[in-house]
Amino acid sequence: MTVDLVIFTVRQDELQVLLIERGNEPYRRCAALPGGFVRDGETLDEAALRELREETALDGRKLHLEQLHAYSDPERDPRGRIITVAYLALGPDLPLPVAGTDAAAARWMPVSTALGGGMPLAFDHAAILRDGLERARWQLEHTTVAAAFCPEPFTVGDLRRIYEAVWGFKLDPSNFRRKVTRTEGFLEPTGERRFPEVGRPAALYRRGVASLLIPPLLRSSEFPVGR
Amino acid sequence: MTVDLVIFTVRQDELQVLLIERGNEPYRRCAALPGGFVRDGETLDEAALRELREETALDGRKLHLEQLHAYSDPERDPRGRIITVAYLALGPDLPLPVAGTDAAAARWMPVSTALGGGMPLAFDHAAILRDGLERARWQLEHTTVAAAFCPEPFTVGDLRRIYEAVWGFKLDPSNFRRKVTRTEGFLEPTGERRFPEVGRPAALYRRGVASLLIPPLLRSSEFPVGR
DNA sequence: ACTGGTTTAAGTCAAGGTGACCTTTAGCTA
DNA sequence: TAGCTAAAGGTCACCTTGACTTAAACCAGT
């Protein structure tokens, strides 16, 4: 029984996933999702938080963490029948530990690269990653978790770039602003402003108390093709 | 490692759940969700289908079946640490097996009764049932699974009564019809009609190919209170 | 054959959200 | 000062929604 983590962040306007290089067989030196065996007396949530700490040195309290799915194909692990429960974690672009620690093999990688086929992932981790991506896109549409990607405080533009990175297409800045600012509890104004290199200063916000987006952010029947 | 099944149906305009009476310790003679241990070489999906067959004699191919959540509290089973993966199954009001079989202890029971506290459920099955109910309500709003509750062919009124039973409040028949008939791929007309005891005959439909409701069925910000 | 009851089906309309687009504001830089 | 950029705010046609009304189709009772 193991847990595996699909940890997403947005860096350089691109959705990235945290991968480790496996140090042991099977799939030694192959890229994989962080994870490991569940210990006795531990819940799955606790195991996911522990692996997060051990393998990536990220602070789980700063991340949105939710159970994704259980994977149980008897052939999924050559060592034998090992069921894994995958977790989805969303968080801001956090610093990774420097070399020398357990988690030194952890790397951020664009999701498009990881799924591109150039470097296969260990086990069924590619399928898990695809499921995680699908869930994340759905969550952005129907909940306010997108704010979990933004280090506080953040601007409406920061939030919009999260959506654009995860969904893979541009949004109208004006309509996006109207939508998120009118959604009660999505954004909590701080009163502060951020002065960028160029352009008008932007108001800064914190995450609000709302968690559901009703109605969803997009009402169009389909995402643009080729996303 | 076990699987447990939250099997919902709508009978007598009420959402009901399939419960069994446990024959073994622990929680002997107590009501519980059907389920059992996963066998070697079996996926979780296969185990769920097998338990469905063994314990309820329902045909899994006629049901909508999806993974719900994994429950892992070390204290959830007095026999020791047993992780269970819960499945949600939605189906029409199917006949249950007669006495004499393995599944004779299976009974449909209104969800409101099962969660009412009058008869506690075994293990953490009350919490699992609550999660299943929440998921089912969400699914009805955002997908077309409600049709899985209806034996084919069915009428728009049949479908509306499903929503009313699961959500626990009345819907405007006229607006409901407009919504579902305009949703491409939700309903597939058969050309037939059903002649009820009283009232105008209703057109009969089959399930369409669509699976997502975009936008969701309700756009109101909240369900009526006290649902 | 008519009337009343019941359910399906279709129509009306004001209110409000959406998507596309435009204008103004506020800061920086050359 | 002009020019650039991004934020912030405004306009408007179109569509959906929710509440409501009207018509249609069938049955039962008189």
Reconstruct the topology from this structure.
Two copies of one chain form a homodimer.
Chain A: E1 2-11, E2 14-21, E3 31-32, E4 35-37, H1 44-56, E5 64-71, E6 84-90, E7 107-110, H2 111-114, H3 125-142, H4 156-167, H5 173-182, E8 187-194, E9 202-207
Parallel strand pairs in A: 1-6
Antiparallel strand pairs in A: 1-2, 1-4, 2-3, 2-7, 5-6, 8-9
The structure holds a DNA duplex (30 and 30 nucleotides).
Explain the overall architecture.
The structure is a homodimer of 227-residue chains. Chain A is an alpha+beta fold and 227 residues long. Chain A folds into 2 domains: 2-122, Nucleoside Triphosphate Pyrophosphohydrolase; 141-207, Arc Repressor Mutant, subunit A (Orthogonal Bundle). Helix content of chain A is 25%, strand content 25%. At the A-B interface, β5 of A face β5 of B. The structure holds a DNA duplex (30 and 30 nucleotides). Chains A, B: Keywords: Hydrolase. Chains A, B: One of its GO terms (molecular function) is hydrolase activity. Chains A, B: Residues 1-133 form the Nudix hydrolase domain.
Radius of gyration computed on alpha carbons of chain A: 18 Å
What's the architecture of the largest domain in chain A in CATH terms?
A: Alpha-Beta Complex
CATH superfamily of the largest domain in chain A: Nucleoside Triphosphate Pyrophosphohydrolase
Give the oligomeric state: homodimer
Tell me the CATH topology of the largest domain in chain A.
Answer: Nucleoside Triphosphate Pyrophosphohydrolase
Instruction: Domain count of chain A, please report it.
Output: 2
